[in-house]
Amino acid sequence: MAAPHLHLLLVLSLALSLCLFPDTARAQLRQNYYASSCPRVESIVRGVVQNKIKQTFVTIPATLRLFFHDCFVQGCDASVMVASTATNKAEKDHSDNLSLAGDGFDTVIKAKAAVDATPGCRNKVSCADILAMATRDVIALSGGPSYAVELGRLDGLSSTAASVNGKLPQPTFTLNQLTGMFAANGLTQTDMIALSAAHTLGFSHCSKFANRIYSFSRQRAIDPTLNSTYAKALQSMCPRNVDPRIAINMDPNTPRTFDNMYYKNLIQGMGLFTSDQVLFTDSRSKPTVNKWATDSKAFQQAFITAMTKLGRVGVKTGRNGKIRQDCAVLA
Ligand code: HEM
Ligand SMILES: *[C@@H]1O[C@H](CO)[C@@H](O)[C@H](O)[C@H]1NC(C)=O
Ligand SMILES: CC(=O)N[C@H]1CO[C@H](CO)[C@@H](O)[C@@H]1O
């Protein structure tokens, strides 16, 4: 008589744990998710991204960074796209949005409009998936690896500036802080080192690294891990009291190409942020930097793996999400 009871108990406890932890059952993303509902979606998005890049290069780094910030705050659910209202200050208006360039938002909005204008596709494709596709496209279109993107995310139901607190890495972070924050999102230290190479593209405002080139106490002038030639160049581009709107290339060598120059720069002491350079100065991550500086293929493989994992963070399905009609509006 014990056996059937045990059986029932197992079934009950399984059902109970699924009710209590609906988010722990990993949402199932898959390639070609829209194959029957909107079969041309990937080429429609790519076309919009290509056009947008023709208008401005900033499309590329802006979209890539937007995806990262989306995924690290409440998961990859396009919550970063939501506009603030009179009663709700949204994620994008937290100071840590660190000048998320408007061209990333614009790319997603334009791609969503193009998708929704396609017969049969209207209201079928989430903003979160469009951002994931556009991100894959900007990487490939700037010389990086091309990969099949997993889809099937829904858009999140909330977005608050408060939810950003403590969720995004800071440029002053140590290796332990970086590794810890990525681990909290299911990413390994190796994934973190791979994803950091996104800084091979795009711009940084002078304030983000001013502490490395000027002394604000009497302790030291220039960060000793910074290449002194590079430090002088940075000082001339970013003089004290520089216009806070000035931004400089993060990769001084190939700023418009997605390549492994990031790691070559680190070896020369030319990582822009403390959080970049520490990957080379800390003996735990240094071997990986050395390896990927000389082995572009190995780096690209690691980057694809890490991006795919990043795209799975906090994915919403079922009642936890919806397909937003307007990516900037929750309701
Ligand atoms: C590892 C920890 C990271 C830190 C501390 C960090 C920090 C920063 C900071 C401070 C900026 C400059 C923002 C500004 O001044 O406007 C920046 C820019 C950027 N970050 Fe990161 N980031 C990190 C990881 C990532 C990851 C994982 C990605 C994407 C996969 C990414 C993509 C970018 C891009 C593309 C830009 C340039 C944005 C533009 O030009 O508009 N970052 N990051
Ligand atoms: C500093 O950078 C220059 C190139 O800008 C390079 O030739 C030099 O070797 C670097 N110094 C160090 C210590 O890596
Ligand atoms: C693009 C964007 O939404 N930028 C906002 C970032 O946050 C500041 C305030 O912290 C806003 O003023 C910007 O509009």
Strand order of the largest sheet: 1-2
Bound compounds, each kind once, are: protoporphyrin IX containing FE, 2-acetamido-2-deoxy-beta-D-glucopyranose
Number of helices: 13
Largest sheet: 2 strands, antiparallel
The residue fraction in helices comes out at: 40-55%
CATH topology of the largest domain: Peroxidase, domain 1
The Cα radius of gyration reads 21 Å
The pLDDT mean sits at: 92
Q: Using the coordinates above, name the CATH class of the largest domain.
A: Mainly Alpha
How many domains? The number is 2
Strand fraction: under 5%
Q: What best-fitting shape do the alpha-carbon axes yield?
A: globular
Distance between the termini: 53 Å
Number of strands: 2
Order of helices and strands: HHHHHHHEHHEHHHH
Could you say which structural class the secondary elements and strand pairing correspond to? mainly alpha
Indicate the CATH architecture of the largest domain: Orthogonal Bundle
Which spans of ≥5 residues are poorly predicted at pLDDT below 50? Answer: 18-25
